[in-house]
Amino acid sequence: MPLRRRLLVLISLVLAACLLIGGVLTYWTGLRKIELEMSSAIEVGDSAIGDALSAISTSGDPAAQLRRTVRSFDGDRHVIASWIAPDGSLKDISRLRKPADPPPGWLYWLLAGKILTHEFTLPAPYQKFGRIEVVADPHNEIGEVWEDLKLKLIIISSFCGVVLALIYASLGHALKPLEDLSSALNRVGEGDYTAHVAEQGPEDLNLIYRAFNRMAGQLRSAEEQNQRLNEQLSTVQEEERSEIARDLHDEIGPFLFAADVDAQSIPILLSRGSNEDVESRAKAIRQSVQHMQLHLRGILSRLRPAMLIDQGLTHAVEHLVAFWRSRRPSITFDADIEDARFPARVEETAFRILQEGTSNAVRHGNPTTIGLTARRIAPGILRVVVSDDGSGIGETAKRGFGLAGMKERVAALNGELHVASQENEKGVRLIADIPVPAEPNKKTDETTRTTSAA
Ligand SMILES: Nc1ncnc2c1ncn2[C@@H]1O[C@H](COP(=O)(O)OP(=O)(O)OP(=O)(O)O)[C@@H](O)[C@H]1O
Ligand SMILES: [Mg+2]
After folding, report:
1. Does the Cβ of 403 fall within 6 Å of ligand 1?
2. Is the pTM value of this prediction over 0.85?
3. Ligand 1 centroid to residue 60 C-alpha, Å
4. Among 18, 120, 167, 346, which residue has the least CB neighbours within 10 Å?
């Protein structure tokens, strides 16, 4: 059952219970009131009849006096007086005043109670005329209770109606944003993170809407970042592929061709008997092969730095520095790498940070000096730092793949990475603190290395 209807049913039940309690109280007080009224009415009737009978005299017509006594009760609201002959037949009876609003039978049945009657035997000389009887009739009194009850019922039911209508309307107004929230949640469930709920209505619900909007915002930016990372990833992969293709074409292709030409010429030279030339061609082929091996290693080390790291972080960084020195001779590279072995994941992460940090400094900072450090600052922490004296990270710097990737790598090893433009100096300082397990599991490390080198 919807919340709104459930609340209304609950409130209606409470109101109905109040109504029931009110009804019981009204009944009880009505009963008491009727009892009191009837007993006092019959007392009044008693004394009136007593007075009238003591005044009967033989001088007048006793029958007429009796009739007058009975008729004196005509129009009474509570008492009916009757004159009953000795044979039980009714000689005369007073007329009760008709209730303005006769009560329904069920109410009469509920409230009437015991009917009070009183008989008067006539004084001795008049006993042949029979007797007088007074009866307390509650119709008028119950009629009053009925009128009172109807008025109360009308007031209470209009009050309940107004209260329920107000609650219905205000619940509808208050719960409207919940409907918006539910449809917004559905949209998020279907992958539409642009869903938004207006922050309005009661404060406690507002907290939920605010939390929802924040969540949708986070999902939206995570999705955007994912998309951007994917695009960058495919761009980087594309760039890498075309660079490798270019290298293979430009560096390996000509030497393969040269080696092929030299190899083809050897049978001809042999048939001519010019052994010296054969020797020089064989040397040329070896040189071509050595050149190709060198380039091939360069390409492979770009594809798989693990091969480089296999020989230690110091060795890998030397390669890295040599790579950049040859391309950016104007930049001074200062490397200070601890000559020790660390677990494979630590070494690879450290190398990736040094590699991307240096690449960022060269690409974005235009520095004159780049420093690369990897040293333990405590037995269990390897601190990797890349600093440069370039332009520093501008406020408008776009979010790329490199910094995010470095952060992820370091976080995966429970480490921390800080990037900051240096305050007093120029440039950027990239600091990564990587936890080093106390006793690296050599077997695992070796397995990892072998796997990644394969
Ligand atoms: N050493 C630095 N000097 C100046 N700006 C830097 C430096 N390092 C990073 N930045 C700024 O921070 C931005 C984000 O760097 P990040 O490495 O994440 O991405 P990127 O280098 O632009 O692209 P890629 O995804 O290819 O790495 C850069 O675009 C650059 O503006
Ligand atoms: Mg980068």
Report:
1. yes
2. no
3. 133
4. 18
